[in-house]
Amino acid sequence: MPSLAPRSRHRVTGSERVGPYTLLRLERGGVDPGIPGQFFMLEAPGRLLPRPFSLCLAPPGELAFLVDPVGPGTVALCALREGDEIAVLGPLGHGYRLDAERPLLVGGGIGIAPLPYLAETLGGSPPVVLGFRSDFHAVAATLLPNAQVCVEPVYVTELIDPTADVLACGPEPMLEAVRTLCPDAQLAWEAPMACGYGACYGCAVEIDGELKRLCVEGPVLRAAA
User: 125-151 burial by CB neighbour count: b if 16+ within 10 A, else e?
Assistant: First the structure.
């Protein structure tokens, strides 16, 4: 088992609505923001288990996470206000390789979360394509102002250049479609996590008949695993 830094407590510096999502900003303290695509375990107030989140933005002195309020834990995180404190563990897992020659960032729904930090880390303005289920959800595209955006019934896979070096994050059906188009893509998979470091096997997903613990083998994996 890897050696882990202890959990640290961080003060909320603010939160803002981005369509149906909440951008939760925390004081960074001495935490390393890590590699885009890695994740952090955030304490969910009033809940037993923390929740995993990719880092969305890393402005000076802050860590910002995009939260979709879909259950009691994420609703509690969205209810945090400036001055509240929560425990944070991370960065954890494996992020994106950053040596792509022709990067194309692909996101679907809340899967756009790691892409603003990824775009910033890659430098310049890499092309980005985003897909959403509704215009309300597509408000989140403001986090990537130069992105090409589509809304169902148009799917984001229709916007992908298959010759590009694709770095993607989104729901499983989208990732499976990207795998078919781009066998060399880097895909950030999503799954519930309880510990974040491989002890509980709660995040194991079956990919090509093989179980992968996303918290230690991912969450970013090559499409052709």
Answer: ebbbbbbbeeeebbebbebbeebebbb
Per the CB < 8 A criterion, the answer to whether 127 and 138 are in contact is no
pLDDT band for position 223 (50/70/90)? confident
Phi and psi at residue 50, to the nearest 5° = -75, 175
Band of the pLDDT at 219, cuts 50, 70, 90?
confident
- C-alpha 43: how far from chain center: 17
Whether the CB-CB separation of 15 and 23 falls below 8 Å is answered with yes
CA–CA separation, 105 vs 86, rounded Å? 31
pTM for this prediction: 0.91
**In the structure encoding, which two tokens stand for residue 115, read together?**
């892409």
Quick check: 113 and 141 in contact, CB under 8 A?
A: no
Rounded Cα gap, residues 28 and 32, in angstroms = 8
Report the C-alpha gap between 109 and 40 in whole angstroms: 19
CB 152 within 8 A of CB 136: no
What is the band of 3 on the pLDDT scale with cuts at 50, 70, 90? Answer: very low
